[in-house]
Specification:
Blueprint lengths: L6 H23 L15 E9 L2 E8 L9 E8 L2 E9 L6 E6 L8 E7 L3 E7 L8 E10 L12 H10 L3 E4 L10 H16 L4 E3 L33 H12 L20 E5 L2 E5 L22 E2 L19 H12 L6 E5 L10 E3 L7 E2 L7 H12 L4 E4 L6 E6 L8 E4 L2 E3 L3 E3 L18 E4 L5 E7 L17 E8 L4 E8 L17 E4 L10 E2 L3 E3 L5 E6 L5 E6 L4 E2 L2 E2 L5 E6 L5 E4 L9 E3 L4
Helix pairs in contact: 2-3, 5-6
Length: 613
């Protein structure tokens, strides 16, 4: 007979056993499996991304690793009159196992079934969509922050996102950064990203922009390709070898339209900033981290980290140092050209990693108040203002991510609300929490709006007006996604009325359901023309045209500097402009080939402009 165990000891043994089991379960939950699966040759193609712009199709196939003795050629076929026809082929590039194919003179007036073939068995199929130029509304589904950490809900299925994209039948997918949350295994995590989102990526154009975590570092100030030597990379540059960075960018951006200025930066790292024309919307694709200056050694240190300012009494002007760069002159030159070119474009939208302000006051935990963060695009202020000044000349709406916090801001340069609107979408799974929580209520708030909305200055004294912030719970508990304010964004661009609707959805809801609720402050609809209509401006004489939707440009009559260029709605346009200045107005169907008036006055009868040729 076995000796009896005292009851008190039995309780202790049971508790200990439960504790061990709980720790084992916790360890399993916190373990990320990024092993690359061994696949049969028929499954060698993991997924494919594509874009179509200006009748050029570019498609990048992502393969699983191949052995030395396997073939390295990938073929692209499209279905024509019921027959499969090869339209291009490419060699697989290693490292990274990608193959990019291109078809010029692509017929974008109709859908086309495609298949990517490898060897004799592997096949990956999808649909190249027709250009939705005949649709009144272009729908963008936008994502950021694809954390895979189970502790933050990163292991929860993405099927709800897949289902919602299919429900709204999005015309374009935009992943603004941090598709990969592993600093050493981009390929493995990228393959997982493809397995998670391939169902929707294969059938619609997709923009993916690599951000800091994608290239293997916690923050990124690319500084034109220099080598970073400090932990955290706050001295600027890249911490990973150039071969790693180039592999990441090849995987995530080689399917985008050709870069407009392809000259490589330091270490031979390429660039991808460009524009994408889809559905009569002209998207500027920006790299807001690649040229940006690192703060370490350049600005007065105001906290334990070179990029964090803890001192609320510091002088913001002290960190706006000479020579600090944000977008860089090459991208500003591109935006200047882009803002004036309205061929095949009714609206303009800028896509980038993050927004042009310090969009959060609290970082990490509810007690982590931070006065200013130089990892945001609020710094350097001069660079931030140059970027906004370039975007507002095209009335461009700005869509971005990165901040782990969904927000709507109307940005200001010289006065509140004199520049563009931005929508920062929430993270898919929220690794690092942030809150927009100013210490004083904002001015000029809308009736009934929360205190955190309204006119404010961020920690760099940049003028911002907040309209919505999807702040997480102060002590997130329970649901790892919704209490941490995870989700995604939807933007609806009406190219006929020029209205822009922003939607911000939590995870695991059916957004077409009548009882589905967005985060507080959404949806919000603005006009395209709200992106450059300062409160101090005044209306000028109305212009009446004999053709619909002409392009109109205002230039300063004394300096000839272009104030803005935009496509009007219908046959009339009432320009708004600064008081006390004279403006020249040019117009045209697509090209500015007609002088409408050499001096646009504030009062008087409408000006009739003939554009019939």
């Amino acid at each position: 007979m076995k000796p009896l165990i005292p009851f008190s000891l039995l309780v202790l043994m049971t508790l200990a056993g439960n504790t061990v089991q709980a720790q084992q379960n916790s360890n399993r939950r916190n373990r990320v499996d990024l092993s690359i699966p061994q696949v049969a040759e028929k499954d060698a193609i993991c997924f494919a991304l594509y874009t179509v712009s200006d009748q050029t199709l570019k498609l990048t196939a992502q393969l699983y690793p191949l052995s030395d003795d396997q073939p390295k050629t990938v073929r692209l076929e499209v279905q024509k009159d019921g027959q499969w026809v090869e339209v291009d082929r490419a060699e697989v590039i290693q490292p990274g196992w990608t193959a990019t194919m291109r078809v010029d003179d692509w017929d974008d007036t109709q859908d086309a079934n495609y298949r990517v073939l490898y060897g004799t068995k592997a096949k990956y199929e999808g649909k190249i969509r027709k250009n939705p130029v005949d649709e009144d509304e272009i729908v963008i589904a936008a994502f950021t922050g694809n954390s895979i950490q189970p502790a933050h809900g990163g292991d929860i299925s993405r099927q709800d996102l897949i289902d919602n994209v299919n429900r709204i039948d999005a015309d374009l997918l935009f992943f603004s950064g941090d598709q990969v949350y592993d600093h050493n295994r981009h390929l493995a995590a990228w393959l997982k990203f493809g397995r998670d989102f391939g169902q929707i990526i294969k059938d619609r154009p997709t923009v993916t922009l690599p951000d800091d975590h994608d290239v293997g570092q916690p923050n990124l100030w690319g500084e034109s390709g220099k080598i970073s030597t400090l932990s955290g990379a706050s001295d600027g540059g890249y911490a990973k070898p150039a071969v790693y960075v180039k592999e990441v960018e090849r995987a995530q951006t080689s399917h985008l339209p050709d870069p407009v200025d392809p000259k490589p930066i330091g270490q031979g790292i390429g660039v991808y900033f460009t524009n994408l024309n889809w559905g009569n919307v002209d998207f500027a694709i920006l790299e807001d981290r690649k040229f940006k200056t690192g703060p370490a050694g350049r600005v007065p240190k105001q906290g334990p980290r070179p990029d964090h300012i803890r001192n609320p009494d510091y002088d913001p002007a002290s960190v706006d140092v000479d020579g600090a760069v944000l977008l860089g002159q090459r991208q500003l030159n591109f935006l200047d050209r882009w803002s004036k070119d309205w061929r095949n474009a009714d609206m303009k939208v800028a896509l980038s990693q993050t927004i042009f302000c310090g969009g959060a006051h609290i970082h990490g935990s509810a007690s982590g108040r931070l006065h200013a963060d130089m990892d945001s695009n609020g710094w350097p202020q001069t660079g931030r203002n140059r970027a906004l000044a370039a975007l507002r000349k095209a009335f461009a709406f700005h869509l971005a991510g990165d901040q782990h916090l969904a927000t709507i801001f109307h940005h200001g340069i010289d006065e509140h609300r004199d520049a563009v609107w931005s929508f920062c979408v929430p993270s898919i799974a929220n690794l690092y929490l942030r809150w927009w929580d100013p210490l004083t209520p904002g001015a000029n708030r809308e009736p009934g709006a929360p205190d955190y909305t309204g006119d404010q200055e961020d920690g760099f004294a940049n003028k911002v007006t907040n309209y919505a912030a999807a702040n997480p719970d102060k002590k997130p508990a329970g649901n790892l996604l919704n209490t941490r304010a995870a989700g995604f964004g939807v933007v609806r661009l009406n190219t006929k009325t020029r209205m822009i609707t922003m939607e911000c959805w939590p995870r695991n809801v059916d957004i077409t359901s009548s009882d589905a609720q967005q985060y507080p402050g959404w949806p919000r609809t603005i006009s395209q023309f709200d992106n450059y209509n300062p409160p101090s401006w005044e209306p000028r004489r109305t212009l009446l045209f004999d053709v619909a939707d002409p392009v109109v440009q205002l230039s300063d009559a004394d300096t000839y500097e272009v104030l803005y260029t935009v496509r009007a709605v219908g046959k009339s346009f009432t320009p708004h402009a600064p008081k006390g200045k004279r403006f020249i107005v040019k117009a045209g169907r697509d090209v500015l080939d007609t002088l409408a008036t050499p001096n646009l006055e504030t009062e008087g009868d409408p000006i009739r402009v003939s554009l019939e040729k």
